[in-house]
Design brief:
Blueprint (H helix, E strand, L loop, with lengths): L1 H17 L10 E6 L3 H15 L2 E6 L2 H10 L8 E6 H6 L4 E2 L21 E6 L1 E6 L24 E4 L5 H13 L4 H13 E4 L4 H7 L5 E5 H9 L4 E4 L8 E8 L5 H11 L2 H11 L2 E2 L33 H15 L1
Parallel strand pairs: 1-2, 1-3, 7-8, 7-9
Antiparallel strand pairs: 3-11, 4-11, 5-11, 5-12, 6-9, 6-10
Helix pairs in contact: 2-9, 5-6
Length: 335
Amino acid sequence: MKKMMLFGTVMLALTALTAIPSGYPGAQEVTVYSGNMQALNDLAAAEFQKAAGIKANIVRVPSGVAMKRMRAEKDNPQGDVIWGVSKVALMANADLLAPYKSKFSDLIDPLFRDPEHRWTGTNLQVPILMYNKKLVKEGEAPRKWSDLLDPKWKNKVAYSNPANSSFSFTVFTMMLHAFGNNEAAWKKMEAFLANVQVVEQSAMVPSNVEKGEFAVGVALEYMAARYVASGANVGMVYPEDGTAAQAEGAGIIKGGKNPKSAEQFVDFCNDKSFREKVIKEMFRRPARKDLDFSQIVPMPPLSQIKTMPGFVDTDYLADREKILTRIKDILLRIK
């Protein structure tokens, strides 16, 4: 009888050991909130499983929505990592992130990582102009951001909602900066808003332009470059008045249930073999400064792209909600 009781006790202990819940040492999974396209999420999940033996549950969600979700869950976080959102969004929500110095941190320019290691840059987003070649001749395509104020583009320009897209917010503040960041500049930005049609997600812009639903789009470099490389009837323009290189990054959600797996995933995001695969398959410009992709994708080195003089995206961070409210009020009045 005692032997039977001892056997039962041992079996219960073994059962408990094999049923360790997520978040305890030995847990082999991580939940990632991602603003990336599903194709990249799928690639990352598969490659991370192979590299680390850890299952990545990657939840695709727009960056603005992801941050609202994290804040709503802060007392009981359901995610472990935030990935694929802008530097601006990460800085604005840094209180939700746990410090961790990635092993690849020193390969990232200090401009593209948090000095307190709450997030690290993974790739760089460059805003560009994209146009449909069937609707716009190459010589007539807009060459500058200021060209988008011309009434001839009214309702012909696709622009993603800056409340949902940090990239679109950066474009808006970059143009506001170029025009002087004063009331006269806001008048010009009203003319810009009058010409655009707002779509809800940045991924919709290149698709809409390629289909001919819009003649021109304010797009992300990598999205447009993929269409160009595939032979689609579209062109892309690096604006002559300058653009920006905005970091997207990854950070560990404070209080998440799988902190060790989260650290491994953040490191993996900048792993050399993974980044090279992402460049080749997804055209995503890496934040790592030691990777040469000039022979892989049709995108120039960052050093050859003119940046907007004097523009610093984080200068507008404190006034983000105020700017978004004013944009919304203008759209309600003029549309």
